[in-house]
Each structure stands twice: as structure tokens, then as C-alpha cells.
Amino acid sequence: MYQWDAREYRDSSSNQKRWALELLARLELQGGERVLDIGCGDGEITAAIARMAPRGFALGIDSSEDMVELASRQYPPDRCPNLGFLLKDAREIDFTGEFDAVFSSACLHWVKDHQPVLSGVRRCLKPGGRVLLQMGGRGNAATVLAAMEEVLRLPRWAGHFEGFDFPYGFYGPEEYRPWLESRGFRVLRLELVPREMRHHGGSDFAAWLRTTWLPYTQRVPESLRESFIAEVVAAHARVKPPEADGSVRFDMVRLEVDALKGD
Ligand SMILES: C[S@@+](CC[C@H](N)C(=O)[O-])C[C@H]1O[C@@H](n2cnc3c(N)ncnc32)[C@H](O)[C@@H]1O
To answer: Ligand 1: distance of its center to the CA of 104 in Å?
Structure first.
């Protein structure tokens, strides 16, 4: 398990929030739905769902205690009666026929085996319920991964990466379609979507690495972490130099899934 710092994530996740809100608009909620948000993080997006479903309910689940604690504190039930948060792993969704829609943004690439996730998603939806997911997909963040690989092989870091396995489930439609169809989902849209991410300078980029690239950064002892991150930023600048205004552009690839639960 990785240790998320919920406050740091909240303060450096404008790119992820923008993507989530764009995806959320596609749900076209009518106002009375019950929606499950998988990997809700600091709860900002789940709260947006709750505002779009004032007569319904939004439940955010997340496997990080720090995230759930911050989300619950920021959006307490007395102020947000149709919004709740629960500590729960995406692979252990155990609701039955309760939700009109399941939403997830920037979470599921943290899970390698999507079979238990999709079984839980199917079970928790009402017949005809909608599933709308966005996650890192095949080819995602290739320049960051190349820079990470270069640095972690250096003799001064290699010892911390013994037995290291690629941590993410970056899949494409070819893998995902059979997983959906074998569970009776009707696929409406399933595609890899290129997305640009921008960080304004090295310190912004370093903050992104520190807050979300945990499978790499948390391999390194805390006292050495900042120098590891600085080396990755420098290695990345060699692969992809910053632009004239100092900003760094990342070519991200998201797998987007839009499907309906069959009867
Ligand atoms: C990048 S954050 C995205 C948060 C939020 N969806 C957003 O768009 O801002 C990824 C979240 O996924 C959660 N996560 C990772 N693996 C998970 C799992 N197996 N089950 C539930 N949540 C998970 C993390 O704890 C983290 O809060």
C-alpha cells in the first residue's frame, strides 16, 4: 500500500480535477441518481457529483485512509447530506443493485487485475446502470517512465529497486472489451484518448512526482527522496526539454470506458 498525502494531492491535482470534471459532464445526471465514485481521493469530484444529483446520493470510496479522512472532514454529512465516503478497495466493492452509475477518474490504473473490480461494478449497479471510467491507458506518460527507468538503473538508486515490478495497469481497448462484454456490459465507447498535461516549471513537476508517482518515490528512503525526484526531473528534461516559457508538457494517454449494464 502506498501512503498518499491527501493535502498535498488536493493542492497539486488541478490537471486530474479538470479531466474528471470533463468526464463527469458526460454522465448527464438528471438529479435523482445514486452514484458510486471509485478512488474518490480528496472528495472534490464526489462533491461535484453530489451537487449534480441533489435528490440522489454520491458515495466516494478509496483505499487510502488519509484521503477518506480528508474527504469526510471537508464534506461533513451535516453540510452535505447526500454525500458520503468509505474506506474501501476498488477490488472489494460489495454493494448489490444500489447504484444508477459508477464513475471513476484517475484511479483504476493503480489496480493491475481489473476482474474483481468489474465484477463488483456489475453487481453494485441497477439493471441498465451506467459505468463511466477514465484511467491511465497503454502508452501513458511514456517520457516520465523513460526518465524513471533511466534514473532507477543508476548504481546509487538501483539497490532500492531490486525486484521492482511495473506497478500500473495501463490497458487498451483490446484487453478491456472482453472484460466488459464477458460480464454483460454493453460498450458504448471504449478508446484510448491522448491528453496533454502541463506543469509550470520543475517544482510543479517535482510536486506531481512526489504526490502521485508513489510506487517509485516511496521505494527511496524519505531522506533521499528529494534528490531522487530532482534527478528524474533532470533526466526528463534531457528526454523532453521544457518549452520556452519554462513549462513542461506531458503526453498522457487515458483509457475511457462508457458502458451500460445489460439486464
Ligand atoms: C490520482 S488520485 C484520483 C482522485 C480523484 N478521483 C480525482 O480525480 O482527483 C487516485 C486515487 O485512487 C486511490 N486508489 C488507488 N488504488 C485504489 C484501490 N485499489 N481502491 C480504491 N482506491 C484506490 C488512491 O488512494 C487515490 O486517492
So the answer is: 9
What pTM does this model have?
0.96
Helix (H) or strand (E) holding 238: helix 222-239
Q: Tell me the per-residue pLDDT of 127-178, one tens digit each, with 9 for 90 and over.
A: 999 999 999 999 999 999 999 999 999 999 999 999 999 999 999 999 999 9
Cell matching residue 34? 445514486
Please measure the distance between the N-terminal and C-terminal CA atoms of the chain and give it in whole angstroms. 36
Protein residues with CB under 6 Å of any ligand 1 atom: 4, 13, 16-17, 20, 39-41, 45, 62-64, 67, 89-91, 105-107, 110-111, 212
Please state the separation of Cα 169 from the chain's center in Å. 11
CATH number of 6-261: 3.40.50.150
Q: Is 171 exposed, middle or buried (0-12, 13-18, 19+ CB in 10 A)?
A: buried
- Work out the number of other CB atoms within 10 angstroms of the CB of residue 205: 23
